[in-house]
Specification:
Chain lengths: 447, 471
């Protein structure tokens, strides 16, 4: 949908809400235009294409707040939605901390964020389908044992507008492109109940721009390599050893830290970092940034979800927790100022260090290179950490045999303090990125 | 319920034209999924009813199927022209072949597995805040170490209409109620969280049953306070006893997902080609059944219009069947099982579980404990995850205890259990006679979120790797 039209609808919705009796009102519109094709074994498995729209209204009277959202953007429907929201707000309790952001904090970043790539929206469907076929063909060509679990090409345009009763009304559009492939391979077992055992993995690339996508050769070869290197995996001994987190597990670990510094978890005391501001929470090798202003990145944005001008925040600097990530409400609850993070993180990353991945691996006599984590055991509230794992064992400074069916257990504070090496490469796959890092000692439970 | 059914305002004649459009490029099957859904979420935290959200969604998804391939498009403007356009988009999955014709529609009768007089969605707002406050008060007053209480009531009411090119049309209102309580207890900097939640395809009567709001408040608080005293769990392989009901998530992860037939059809599941093989101890019978009355995972018909029935997946340890959607059933030329489910009109259906459970056994639970010298007893769970290909799965307990010399001793915390599906199920050595279904709280994520149910009697497994930190 056209951005001017979306701004007009949001602005109109705010005016209707005020006219209906709300004291404050905000309206956000999101329009997602999405395309996705998946091919498998030289056939198109699924092809989907659609546009979804949603309006969200948040309003308050006497500090009693409510929200309503709908997929119907007609004026009559919006008016009805607002009336229902007003009715809902009447049963809510007064929340003295509720309010719109300070008017001086509102605004749109002037700098060019390069969020819209014309080239990517002009790719015809046939070319996207062909690209998915090409990706699968390359992967299967690398090794004949590969079973394809599907190669996909997805693309879309995300359009949004936001208006509030302080007079803010803006909008922007972002393009999205992604290719991915999943594969499996037979891992035949001589005995036991799991005769059908297989190993599987995947790889993907996603980007705002078409030019930012990785080459299909690279995506395919990494998917195949990650799959084949799991063949013959064994269960390791229960032990305590140094662990290297690869880009996938490092990113997963960092995403838990993103939740732990989220203002909502801080004021609700559901983060183990709730009392740790300005304290050392990590080894001095760790610096963590949230930066919405990086041109062409998936998490970039000109303002946050309540219209506060986006800005770069240093969350952890050389191991010291400098800032939580806050909306205006969360900031008021904590007697602080908003950091422009209503809606959460933007581009959240750990700064790269100065060791090469090879140096990190060769520094370990006996340890683990962790390539996959699973399960809901990363508990940011208690700070306890426990995950299922898969990886490759390190012996005498070299990657040797694959391991699976084990857990790694510790605590976030102990693990962050134990980061003793950080790699010099930062790979952006999503809006969260972490370099490879090494933690000196973690409990592994296996045989 | 039908009297309050949402009017999608599309005649059967127009539906027929749309189904035909989806068949116009050579697909052999098409369907339309109409949905109008209202969701209400009210949350109390820090002692005030703070968040209130209402969400309304309306849309229609049109699918065209040819062999294993499917085209899909949806529209939130359910005018005839927009739906016809979506049908053309979906039809493009096939680009040659003869245009097909949809059969005339006739309504398919079905049994109502969640007959209620009123949905929670229709309940007065004041009634809902009353239940929330009751749960909050019970949790707060449980113990002085309780520092935070958060209570949410979420209700959902979906009007669904499905029409298929093989001439079936079905309409249903699907209710859902869920109450969740989360409690944080603190003592000397140690912070622990307890949770309790439940519900099902029920209306307000859920809150008048044995699991009234206060009982959930007290249960969450009890867990949080208990965990303050918990010790670090051991590390290494151990005997495990699972409590009835919620432990069913072990089944959901270990064999449920790998028996969803899309993974079988693609040859990526560890259970591919193993029908008739022994994949579990002879004490193990596993069933998926979408007809359990009022259960969170039940459905009157699945999201492609198939009526559910009990599907035996494993019988006395032997692999008997998979869970199918239409595409996989056609691929294997097997009967439909009623497992084609989707999150909403925005998604095509895929094979999903409904209510997955392990059938009752004959052991007295006391006997199960008495036979255990040293092990871990798990009562409630945060959730789990599985690797379909190699069969490794994890699940994470919330409330668990050490078992020593047949007796429950200290509570333990912070651990993940990891096992391999076929391996762990072959190590089931005792099955209790105290079967129970979980109170409705589980949501399964497989690209799309759908509500599911689980159930299990007390179970003993001779060895699972306990991933604690105490070596």
């Amino acid at each position: 949908m056209n951005i001017d039209k979306m701004k007009e609808i949001a602005d109109k919705a705010v005016k209707i809400a005020i006219a209906e009796g709300a004291e404050t009102a905000e309206a956000s519109l999101i329009s997602n235009s999405q395309f996705s094709v998946t091919v498998r074994n030289e056939k198109t498995e699924s092809l989907t294409e659609s546009v979804s729209n949603r309006i969200g209204i948040t309003l308050s009277s006497d500090k009693r707040k409510s929200s309503a959202t709908s997929s119907d953007l007609s004026e009559s429907s919006i008016r009805q939605l607002i009336r229902e929201a007003i009715e809902l707000s009447r049963v809510m309790d007064r929340d003295e901390y509720f309010g719109l952001p300070d008017k001086n904090d509102l605004g749109m970043v002037k700098a060019e964020l390069d969020l819209f790539d014309i080239e990517s929206i002009s790719v015809p469907t046939e070319k996207k389908v062909a690209a998915a076929f090409e990706l699968e063909r390359i992967a299967k060509g690398i090794d004949e044992r590969i079973i394809s679990d599907g190669a996909s090409y997805s693309s879309g345009i995300y359009s949004s507008s936001y208006a509030n009763s302080l007079g803010f009304c803006e909008g922007y559009q972002q393009t999205f492109n992604s290719i991915d492939i999943s594969c499996a391979v037979e891992d035949l077992q001589q005995e036991g109940e799991n005769k059908g055992k297989k190993q599987s993995s995947y790889w993907f690339s996603s980007s705002v721009s078409l030019a930012g996508l990785a080459h299909p050769e690279e995506v395919a070869s990494r998917a195949v390599e990650r799959t084949l290197r799991k063949l013959g995996a064994v269960k390791p001994e229960t032990c305590e050893v140094p662990v290297v987190f690869d880009p996938v597990t490092a990113r997963s670990f960092l995403s838990s830290i993103a939740s732990a510094v989220n203002g909502g978890n801080i004021y609700k005391r559901t983060s183990y970092l709730a009392d740790m501001k300005d304290e050392r929470i990590s080894s001095p090798l760790v610096t963590i940034i949230d930066d919405p202003l990086m041109p062409g990145r998936l998490g970039s944005m000109p303002y946050d979800s309540e219209g506060v001008k986006a800005r770069k925040n240093t969350v952890v600097e050389k191991g010291v927790l400098l800032s939580w990530l806050l909306s205006s409400y969360q900031a008021r609850k904590l007697s602080l100022k908003t950091t422009g993070n209503a809606g959460g993180i933007s581009n959240f990353y750990m700064e790269k260090g100065d060791s090469s991945v090879e140096e990190i691996i060769s520094s370990i006599d006996n340890g683990l290179f962790l390539t996959s984590m699973s399960g809901p055991g990363a508990n940011i509230s208690s700070g306890d950490f426990s995950q299922g794992g898969q990886g490759i064992w390190i012996n005498n400074g070299e990657l040797t045999y694959p391991v699976n069916e084990f857990t790694i257990t510790g605590s976030f504070s102990r693990m962050l303090s134990g980061i003793v090496m950080v790699a010099d490469d930062l790979e952006w796959m999503t809006s969260i990125a972490s370099p490879v890092f090494k933690i000196d000692n973690i409990t592994i439970s296996g045989k | 319920m039908i009297e309050s059914f949402y009017d999608f305002n599309t005649s059967e004649e127009d539906i027929g034209k749309i189904l035909n459009t989806a068949l116009s490029k050579g697909c052999q099957y098409s369907d339309i999924f109409f949905e109008h859904t209202i969701v209400n979420i009210i949350t109390m935290e820090e002692g005030i009813v703070k968040e209130g959200v209402k969400a309304i969604s309306l849309g229609a998804g049109i699918r065209a199927v040819k062999g294993e391939g499917s085209g899909y498009a949806y529209t939130e403007d359910i005018s005839f022209e927009k739906m016809r356009h979506a049908a053309l988009t979906a039809a493009a999955i096939a680009d040659s072949g003869k245009a097909g014709t949809a059969s005339p529609l006739s309504a398919v009768p079905y049994k109502d597995h969640y007959e209620i007089s009123k949905t929670t969605t229709e309940a007065a707002l004041g009634e809902k805040t009353g239940w929330i406050e009751e749960a909050e008060k019970a949790a707060r007053e449980f113990d002085p170490r309780v520092v935070k209480v958060s209570v949410t009531i979420a209700d959902k009411s979906s009007n669904i209409q499905i029409a298929t090119s093989d001439g079936r049309i079905l309409r249903d209102t699907r209710p859902m109620t869920r109450l969740s309580v989360s409690v944080v207890a603190e003592k000397n900097g140690n912070r622990q969280t307890g949770v309790s939640s439940g519900g099902g395809r029920l209306g307000p009567e859920y809150f008048q049953g044995s699991r009234d709001p206060g009982s959930h408040g007290r249960e969450a608080a009890r867990q949080a306070v208990l965990l303050l005293e918990a010790v670090d769990a051991p590390a290494g392989p151990m005997e495990i006893i699972l409590a009835p009901a919620d432990s069913g998530i072990l089944l959901h992860e270990s064999v449920g997902h790998p028996l969803e037939a899309d993974f079988i059809r693609k040859g990526t599941s560890a259970y591919t080609g193993r029908l008739g093989d022994r994949v579990a101890s002879s004490l193990v019978t596993v069933i998926d059944d979408g007809t359990i009355d009022y259960d969170r995972g039940s459905i009157n018909f699945d999201d492609e219009g198939t009526l559910p029935a009990p599907t035996v997946l494993i019988e006395n340890g032997i692999l008997k069947g998979y869970m199918h959607d239409r595409i996989s059933a056609d691929f294997f030329d097997l009967p439909l099982t009623g497992n084609g489910r989707r999150e909403s009109y925005k998604y095509p259906p895929i094979p999903r579980m409904t209510v997955t459970y392990l059938a009752n056994g004959s052991s007295d639970p006391e006997e199960i404990f008495a036979s255990t010298k040293k092990g871990i007893y798990c009562k409630s769970f945060m959730g789990g995850q599985v690797d379909i290909a190699n069969g490794d799965f994890v699940f994470v307990p919330i409330e668990a205890y050490l078992v020593e010399e047949g007796r429950i001793s200290a509570p333990v915390k912070n651990f993940t259990l990891i096992g391999n599906g076929p391996d762990v199920l072959s190590k089931v050595t005792m099955v209790g006679n105290d079967f129970a279904f979980s109170d409705g709280r589980w949501t399964c994520g497989k690209g799309q979120l759908v509500p599911v149910g689980v159930g299990l009697p007390t179970l003993k497994i001779s060895e699972i790797t306990v991933g604690g930190s105490d070596l």
